[in-house]
C-alpha cells in the first residue's frame, strides 16, 4: 500500500533552517509528481512547493527564494529544505502524491495520498 512517512519537523528560531524528508513506498515514486503542503489551524491547506517526475518545480510566493523542493528517485525520498524561516511559516507540513497531470499539481484535489504531517514551529 502507498505510504508517505515524513520526518524533520521541529522547533527553530526565526532565521534558522529545517529540512523535511518524506520516504515513499508502495508505488513507483519516480513516475509521480510530489508536493509539500502546510496547514495552520482554522485555515485551508496551502501548497508550499511541488516537483514533477522530471524535476520541474513550482513554489508558493511565500516560499520562493527561501525553500527548495527536491527528490531522490533512487532513495524514493522527497525533500523540503527551508531556510530563513519566519514565525509565519509555523504550520503542520505534509508531503503528498499528485495523482494528476503536472499542470494540475497546484490543486490540492489532485493529491491522492498524504503523509502524517509534521509540526514546524518558528519562534520569533
Would you mind describing this structure in some detail?
This protein has 124 residues and is an all-beta fold. Helix content is 0%, strand content 51%. The chain is built from no helices and 11 strands. Strands 2, 4, 5, 6, 9, 10 and 11 form a 7-stranded mixed beta sheet that branches. A 4-stranded antiparallel beta sheet has the order 1-3-8-7, with no helix packed on it. A hairpin with a 5-residue loop joins strand 5 (46-51) and strand 6. The radius of gyration is 13 Å and the shape is globular.
Distinctive features:
124 residues, 7-stranded mixed β-sheet, single chain, 4-stranded antiparallel β-sheet, mainly beta
What's the short story on this structure?
With 124 residues, the protein is mainly beta. It has strands spanning 3-7, 10-13, 18-25, 33-39, 46-51, 57-59, 67-72, 77-82, 91-98, 111-114, 118-123.
Structural class call reads mainly beta
Q: Give helix % range.
A: under 10%
What is the CA–CA distance across the termini?
40 Å
**Biggest sheet architecture:** 7 strands, mixed
Strand/helix succession: EEEEEEEEEEE
Strand content: over 45%
Principal-axes shape call: globular
If you average the pLDDT, what whole number results? Answer: 96
Uncertain runs: none
Say how many strands there are.
11
Amino acid at each position: 500500500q502507498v505510504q508517505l512517512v515524513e520526518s524533520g519537523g521541529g522547533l527553530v528560531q526565526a532565521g534558522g533552517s529545517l529540512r523535511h524528508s518524506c520516504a515513499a513506498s508502495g508505488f513507483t515514486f519516480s513516475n509521480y509528481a510530489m508536493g509539500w503542503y502546510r496547514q495552520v489551524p482554522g485555515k485551508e491547506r496551502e501548497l508550499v512547493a511541488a516537483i514533477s517526475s522530471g524535476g520541474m518545480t513550482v513554489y508558493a510566493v511565500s516560499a520562493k527564494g527561501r525553500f527548495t523542493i527536491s527528490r531522490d528517485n533512487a532513495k524514493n525520498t522527497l525533500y523540503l529544505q527551508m531556510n530563513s524561516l519566519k514565525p509565519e511559516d509555523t504550520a503542520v507540513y505534509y508531503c503528498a502524491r499528485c495523482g494528476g497531470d503536472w499542470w494540475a499539481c497546484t490543486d490540492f484535489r489532485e493529491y491522492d495520498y498524504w503523509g502524517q504531517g509534521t509540526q514546524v514551529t518558528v519562534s520569533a
